[in-house]
């Protein structure tokens, strides 16, 4: 009796365990049940709504999304162009997607029509699918260009660019009552990124040529993205736009290839005294799947990405920070006071430059930079992400290959995290020493994104911002010109810039 009872119980336990294991395996591997609903789609008329969304600026898109999120919750779907995009406004959901489920959310949607021309068929870091090519390109940038010792090798170039910027600002302020700042900041950042990219200082004429070609492409990228919408039709209907895109790309290839080839010829004679440039690393790189070196089109694509990613983002952030330092003079004075106290004035007779090695002592300066990035992130969205499998987020199905984006600017203004979110109050970062901008543990703001696709240049960007802000306020007093004002309205270009560019009166501080 006892024996058969024991056998029966053991059998039942075995069956139960087997069933549980099967259910567990099945539930982790199988797609979520089809009963899970997709995120709400606010009023949608096929063909018409996608075209209307496509025509909206991202500022308009953001305003409308804000009202949709208030009505439908933190996850909504909009049909923009040919595909639906899911927009996520909540920082905890962003953390769950980008950090906790990073491998699922790290793809990029394909843009087959324009990609062949603009990104050498997705062979840039930002456009590559999540896989071996992306990993190789990204690792090359991160470990060959952006790691600590390589960044240090460019400190001479940074100082040189800074001195030129200070001289240009001084002469502009002497000849005019007020100075339009952004032109100077953009020029300085561009010169610096050009040097890092090609390893040499270019003369003013060449810099202007390349800057013109790069800008004309950059400012029209949105216009060209329309060509991915029903390509066989738009290629005919928007013939002029196609031709314009091809012409711009040709011009870009002409100017960049001259520099790439020249650097390629120097490769054979590079010695230890010469800095290693981004192109040098690319010329040595091998694509893992194709087992070949990069071709010239791919080199142009990657140099273009490097120049764009590092110039406009940083100069935009720099302009926003300086605008707030002009609007709130007490913050500007506190930065100067900190420099005076921590770094001291004594040893600076010859040079008025705050050195890079001194920046780590300047906690309030760091707080000012972080507050600038929170209040005015240069990108109000990240680049679109693609999902590699069906996944359930906040009870909604995010379908395989679905496009997802995140409302970066909204997260930085979340009143549950940030008291008086519209104010410019760097002090809030002083209590949070070692604030984690990567959002690894928790996302409070994400100006550089988060997870595996986080901006690989964030350390360089922070260095540039701290170095230039410190030196700009140390060397000049920045003021609103008489009768003027600092208008913090925004407009979308490649990044979200000041609608009315900052004009200031500057005078030497020392
Ligand atoms: C203030 C300056 C900068 C800001 C605010 C910024 C912001 C961003 C953001 C939001 C993304 C998209 C992340 C995502 O898709 O989830 C990104 C991607 C990227 N950024 Fe930056 N960035 C800055 C400076 C730089 C610099 C200096 C470089 C390099 C020179 C750089 C290189 C890149 C690259 C290559 C990507 C694509 C990463 C990938 O897809 O794996 N960025 N950046």
From TrEMBL:
It is found in: Membrane. GO terms for cellular component: membrane. GO terms for molecular function: metal ion binding; monooxygenase activity. Heme binds at residue 455. The keyword Disulfide bond does not apply. InterPro entries: Cyt_P450, Cyt_P450_CS, Cyt_P450_E_grp-I, Cyt_P450_sf, Plant_metabolite_P450s. Its cofactor is heme. It is a single-pass membrane protein. PANTHER family: CYTOCHROME P450 89A2-RELATED (PTHR24298:SF800), FLAVONOID 3'-MONOOXYGENASE-RELATED (PTHR24298). This is Cytochrome P450. It comes from Flemingia macrophylla.
